[in-house]
Every structure is written in structure tokens, then in C-alpha cells.
Amino acid sequence: MASSRAINVLFLIGLLLVPFMWDSFVAYQLGLFLLYGMVGQGIGLCWGRAGFLPLGQALFFGVGAYVFGFALKLEAGPLILVAGLLAAILLPALIAFVVGFLVFIRQIGSGPYFSLITLALTMLGFQLANSMDWLTGGFNGMTGIPALPGTDTYETLYYVIWAALVLVSGVLAYVGTAPFGQLLGATAQNEERLQYFGVNTALLKAIAFAISAAVAGLAGALFAPHQGIVTPQSVGFLLSAEIVVWTAVGGRASLMGPVLGAILIGFMASELRDSFQYWEVLIALVFVVVVIRFPGGLWSLVEGLARRLPSIGAKGARKRDLETDKSRADGSVRLAFEDVELVLGPVRILDKLSFRIDTPGVHSIIGPNGAGKTSAFNVLTGRLKPTAGRIEYNGATVGGLSRHRIARKGIARKLQIPSVFPDLSVDRNLDIALWAGNLTLSQMFTLRPFRWSTPLLNEMYDIFPFLEDGRQPAGSLSLGQRQMLDFAMTCLTQSPLLLLDEPCAGLSSSETGEMIDAIERIVATTGSTAIIIEHDMQVVERLSNHVLVLNQGALLANGAMEEIRSNPAVQAVYGGGSK
Ligand SMILES: Nc1ncnc2c1ncn2[C@@H]1O[C@H](COP(=O)(O)OP(=O)(O)OP(=O)(O)O)[C@@H](O)[C@H]1O
Questions:
Q1: Does any ligand 1 atom lie closer than 6 A to the CB of residue 417?
Q2: ipTM of this predicted complex?
Q3: Which of 167, 188, 292, 462 has the fewest CB atoms inside 10 Å of its own CB, making it the most exposed?
Q4: What domains are there in the chain, each with its CATH number?
């Protein structure tokens, strides 16, 4: 990490020295490629980190260019210029935020759907730029844009562009390190899990998209005085696609990769354009080879070299300060299902399901396969909307709300299959659980949450000692350990209600014993309420004395284990197994 940062700094210093080593035309060309590289850095934030690909970044680049070009042409003094620059940055950010939020709120992932919308928008932008002659100069473009005061296009402007690149790189590096960037990375790996932790992932992704658009707007603003002309091509799809290609070639997941990609392909194109008729084919081949041979882009080669250098100031294990105990588990849980129905197509999954849970401790839901147990959790946690009926939690209706809203009300869920963030470290997985439900938007951009802790975390280390080796990726843990990490993360949300879907699934009998002890201990120390779905009667017997039996989407029986055992209706439909 430290050496990767050092390489980034060396790269930037190298770029600063270019005008001293080559002629001013090289500085002019390089300045243009750095602007495209900055746009690529914004794409990297969205695509490389958060996993969604914007295909129309030239729209924001072009808007920035037209707006600032317009301000420059007014020649009305520094105030207008500053206002123009702000507008060139903020207008794209606003457009991106609104579009992004509307798209992301509709569905999880949003991959191709989002990309196609951004593609359509950039095509629309191109049409508007072409047709609005009175504002943009139409097909011929906005011409006669004067130089930025105090600069000349071939040399001094290069330093302004370089400074903007340093600023953008610094901001993106910080944003990536802060909780915001960590949550973005987690979104790319397991968005639904993050929502069950109480994170509004649509908002998170829309902010990332807005940041990338602001960066493109700034680059576009500097493009206007650099070129002296802005044409509709600056808003178009072709430029958008080219920058995506450069980003992929350089390395979408790295900070400097997109800049490297823009420089290399930019110079290659300008050298080949006049000397080789099929230069575009050659560039396409380079793209294909790099993407296949080096999926991390060319920057991964640079980082590979950096890793061979002695590590500068590598950090030791992170110390956690005991800063806050945000315990929300006060034992007060009042959950009521009233005639809840869930009908999907021709299938009636829940059929007037009604029950109440208002005592702390462990409650079990059992029932034959397909009885509707997981579906009951799904309607309670926002994965599915109930077709009819009412779900009330602590006096508020929660049925039909979105996942993160329900989670923020204090309902945490552990899915049946362990659901962690595999590429993130164990420490980071635990951080995300701790932050969930507690982080405000502004705290996402500060580093303090990295020091948050709670006595519950120390208890988790005590119960599951393997968690203390926090630097290993969660994906390298065994299935049993991932179940335990997932359970620990669910508990660390400090929600009063814990929903545990088959927490012992896939565990050996000794691991099952450990998990049972853990559930008992956490429920006892936090005073929380747990509802577990379980097939193993031995687990049910050890953990809870209140059992709900579901069959065909309805409640068949409800009571103490002894009553359930002697219930003839249960005996007729239910045959539980044991490990
Ligand atoms: N999204 C869905 N679309 C269509 N049918 C569904 C959907 N989700 C669940 N079902 C159906 O609803 C029924 C109940 O499923 P559910 O997963 O809730 O049962 P379960 O009691 O948890 O079963 P198991 O113990 O096997 O996990 C099953 O017949 C299942 O196929």
C-alpha cells in the first residue's frame, strides 16, 4: 500500500518534469491526455471500485467545457470565471446524482441498465449540442475561446492541468480510503448484504457517480481554454467510449491507471495516425491484448514492480480505540405478522401468516421444506413485498419498506449461505458491520469511524479467536469460519432483533456446538431477540423454548417445545432431522 502510494507520487512528479525534458508541443499534447486521464479516474471510481460502468462520461466533460468556455468568452473578470468553473463542476455532478439515484433506487446491481442509460444521455447531449446553435455554436462548435488568464496553451496551462490532476488524484485517493470508498468496494461485491446492514447503496452509488461527473466537468472546463474550441464531439459517444477503453487499458481499479492508459494510447494514436493507415485496428488490438493478458490493466505491471521495492513504512496491526458503545439492543422487540400474504405469480407462498414475538431470547421457526420460513424473513426484511396483511415492528409498519430502511430500524439478518465481502479483509468486514446503521453521510468522508469499536467486538474476538487475524481476506476463510464471521457481523450491527437463517448450515458438529454457544452468549449479554430458522431439532431444543411451526405458508403451531412435540398436526406434517 505504502509503496503503491509512493509510485503514484513518483508518477505525478515525473509528469511535472515533462515540459523540461521535451518541447512545448509535447506538453500541449500531454496536457490533453491528462484531461482525458482525469475523466478516466472518475470512471475508475465507478467501474473499478463500485462495479457499475458509466458509458457516457463525455456528456459531463462536454458540459464542463461548454459552460467554462462560455464564461471565458464573456471576459468579465475573475468572479465570473470562478462562478463558471464552479458551474462546470457542479452542473455535471447534479445531473449525474439525479440520474444515478433514479436508476440505482430501482434495482440492485443496475449494471447494463445503468450503462445503457448513460449511453443514451450522451447521445442526447450530442444532439442538443448540435442543434442549440445560439448557445453551443452548433455543428461548428463554440469557437474563439480565449486562454485562461495568465497562461499560454503550449506551456503554462500544462502546469494548471497538472495541478488539477494532483487535486483530483488526492481527492479520489482520500475518498477511496474513507469509509465511503470502503462501502463502495463492498457494494461491488455484495450489494444486497450491505443493504441488510442498513446502507442506502443507491445513495452511495449516486454520490460516486456525481463525484466522477464533477471530475469530468473540471477536466472539460480546462479543455475549453486548452483547445480554444468546443465541438459536439466533446459530448459524444465516441469520446466516452474511447475514455472507457483507455481506462481499461491503464487499469480501472487503480488511481493512476486511467491516466497512464490515456497517455500511452493518446501518444500512440498521434504517432500512428499519419504514418499507418490501419492505426485504429492496431489500437483495438492493443486493447484486446491488454484486457485479456492483464485484466488489472497496465498499471498492475507498474504496481508489480513497486511490490518488489522494499516496503516504505508498512503499518502494523491496527489498534482499535474503544470509542463508542452504540448499543441499540435494549431487549424491547415487538414483532407482529397480521394476516400476511405473499403471492408470486400462481404461487401462494405465505397464506394469512399471523404471529407475535415480544419476549427477548431465542425463538425458532421450523417447518418442512418449502413451508415459507425464508419467505417470512424475506417479507420482514424488504427482500419481497407482502401482497397483503401487515408487519409491525416496535409500533411501526415495516412490510414493504426497502432493505436498508428496515435494517436501520434495528432488524439484522444473516442469510442462510454465508454472505461476506470476500475480497475485503476480515477487519474491513467487521468495520462495515459496525458502521452500518451508525454512519452519517458526513462521517463516511472522515477517517474516525476506522477507530470505532464496542465491547461487543472484543466479545466476538473472544468467541471466535480467528477473527483477530484481521488482515486476511474474508474469501480465504473456511465455510464454517465465514458462517461465524457473518454471524459476528450480524451481531455487530447491535440490532435488537437478529434474524438467523440456518446459522449452523454446513458446519461440522463441533462448529455447530461453537455456534450454539455463541448465539446463546450474545443473546444473553446484549438482551437482544433472535429468531432462527432451523431444521436441526437438537439445535432448536438447545437454543429456544419458543417454537413456531410453519406449513404451506401459514402458522401450524406455536408454543413451547414440549407442546410442539405432542401436537398431532405437527407430527403429521413435520419430520425434523438432526446432525
Ligand atoms: N421469489 C420466489 N418466486 C417464486 N417462488 C418462490 C420464491 N421464493 C420462494 N418461493 C417458493 O415459495 C415456497 C416457500 O419457499 P421458502 O424458501 O420460504 O421455504 P422454506 O420454508 O424456507 O424452505 P427451506 O426449508 O427448504 O429453505 C417454495 O415453494 C419456494 O419455491
A1: no
A2: 0.94
A3: 292
A4: 2-308 (no CATH), 335-566 (3.40.50.300)
